[in-house]
Write a structure and sequence with these properties.
- Helices cover about 80% and strands about 0% of the residues.
- The two termini are about 25 Å apart.
- The mean pLDDT is about 75.
């Protein structure tokens, strides 16, 4: 049943996101092509600059659109008119919330992938223009070597970002559920913002407590290597995994799980649906 719910969510969100992704890729390709049509290496045309600004604006809009759509889909499907129908389905509240969370996670990952592909396309096309000034082949090989030598660290930090993003999403979900309790029915917007701020402050407090109890050796190593202009040491420090990073990851996972069950617990109660 979870798969069917996610299929429905992906279809609903895909109508907006997939055309948007195509637009981002098209603008990136056009921006990269315009610079190659310039006669001078550093003579960026006005059209090229506008194209790059538009592409950057689309990147930012993709993130904002993802967050807005997350809130809109959760409120409309579970806390709005559709909620009366959704709660009659033979499926648990946990599956309903999980389907929306996993769908939002899929689209934020797709957004990151599309952004990465767009930047790569522009970089490759620009490299043909500036190759006489800068050895872009050497630069690309260097970046590739850095990534290939730190696959484990990249995987860990990717999971850490997913856990951090999950806490953000579930914070939005819980704040939305809280403002639909009967006691807050007259002040939904105010209670939603207040709940989100309070939950965020609690999470910041937990992070601050961890920072006081556990020394961030990685940050210290980065600072020392940068101050001594040790580029290799700085890269090694950036891609290292310390005790502090592991504890933060565990804390993010624990917070996300707690927020998830708090949200489903409220949904099992009688909310004031719109």
């Amino acid at each position: 049943m979870l798969g069917k719910l996610m299929k429905y969510e992906i279809r609903s969100c895909g109508r907006i996101f997939f055309p948007f992704y195509i637009i981002v890729l098209v603008f990136s390709i056009l921006g990269g092509l315009f610079i190659n049509f310039d006669n001078g290496i550093h003579d960026f045309t006005f059209v090229y600059l506008i194209g790059m600004l538009a592409a950057f604006a689309l990147f930012v809009a993709a993130i904002v659109l993802t967050i807005v759509l997350i809130v809109q889909r959760f409120n409309k499907s579970l806390l709005g008119d559709e909620g009366y129908l959704m709660f009659t389905l033979p499926v648990s509240k946990e599956s309903l919330v999980l389907s929306k969370f996993l769908t939002s996670l899929i689209f934020i990952i797709l957004t990151v992938i599309v952004s990465f592909v767009s930047i790569t396309l522009v970089s490759v096309m620009v490299s043909y223009k500036v190759d006489e000034v800068l050895d872009m082949g050497y630069l690309f090989r260097s970046v590739k070597d850095v990534f290939s030598q730190n696959i484990g660290a990249m995987a860990f930090y990717s999971l850490n970002y997913i856990a951090d993003y999950s806490t953000f999403i579930f914070t939005i979900y819980l704040a939305s559920a809280i403002c639909h309790l009967n006691v807050f029915s007259k002040y939904k917007v105010l209670s939603a913002f207040g709940s989100f701020i309070i939950l965020s402050l609690i999470q910041s407090g937990i992070g601050g407590a961890i920072a006081l109890l556990v020394t961030d050796d990685k940050a210290i190593a980065i600072s020392e290597n940068m101050s001594s202009f040790d580029i290799g040491g700085t890269f090694n420090a950036v891609f290292s995994i310390g005790t502090y990073d592991i504890i933060i990851f565990i804390a993010n996972v624990a917070i996300a799980v707690a927020l998830f069950f708090a949200t489903t617990t409220l949904l099992n109660k009688k909310l004031n649906l719109e």
